[in-house]
Write a structure and sequence with these properties.
Length: 209
């Protein structure tokens, strides 16, 4: 019987989730796990940021562009308009999830953590992009102009607590072949390296970066 909180099957001594067993990658040092995750997130840039809606309590996701990473690649920075709904959400509940997907390879990453809204102008200037004007606009009052001194521009700093991700071990042809074989034989497809970064590992990494 599965040891999980929910189970609808008793597979005896057979793995109930053979895909995970076939793809879980545990024999990899922490620095490589962080390096591969950080590289994947940076190269993809666009993510989905999930917060808890401050009015309804429901989960809400928005597409966000990664501005930078900190702490050796584990903490994430995003620009935000301080007057947007997501800042209300994070003031109400700091818990957050950031997810990335490469739709071509099927690689993905999920980062769970806590977020803070940083209005420090030095940090804003450091990571400012002129493209932000397209999202904030120039209100014509000489202050709210979408520039680096616009007080509406802040940074959401996401501090990682845990992460889960999958990176490809085969090209698209190899993946298709393996999936096709699995559909015929019932053998789980081995197409990704599934990796997990625990709270303890994050704390260890953060202590030296």
């Amino acid at each position: 019987m599965s040891g999980h909180g929910f189970s609808n099957a008793d597979t005896g001594n057979k793995p109930a989730d053979p895909y995970k067993q076939a793809n879980l990658d545990t024999e990899v040092p922490l620095d490589q796990k962080i390096r591969d995750l950080s590289g994947f997130m940076t190269s993809n840039k666009f993510s989905m940021m999930t917060t808890r809606d401050s009015k309804t309590g429901y989960l809400l996701s928005r597409c966000m562009a990664l501005a930078a990473t900190e702490s050796g690649g584990i903490d994430l920075l995003f620009h935000t308009n301080t007057e947007s709904g997501k800042t209300d959400d994070l003031k109400s509940d700091e818990h957050i999830n950031i997810s990335f997907l490469n739709s071509t390879t099927g690689d993905w990453a999920s980062v769970s953590g806590t977020a803070s809204i940083v209005t420090d102008r030095d940090l804003v200037r450091k990571h400012y992009s002129p493209q932000l004007k397209a999202w904030l606009g120039d209100l014509g009052d000489g202050v709210h102009d979408g520039g680096p001194e616009d007080p509406r521009i802040a940074v959401i700093r996401v501090k990682m607590v845990t992460a889960h991700y999958a990176i490809s071990t085969k090209n698209i042809v190899g993946k298709v072949a393996d999936v096709a074989q699995g559909a015929i034989t019932g053998k789980p497809a081995s197409v990704n390296k599934l990796r997990e970064i625990s709270e303890q590992e994050v704390r260890s990494w953060r202590s030296s970066h």
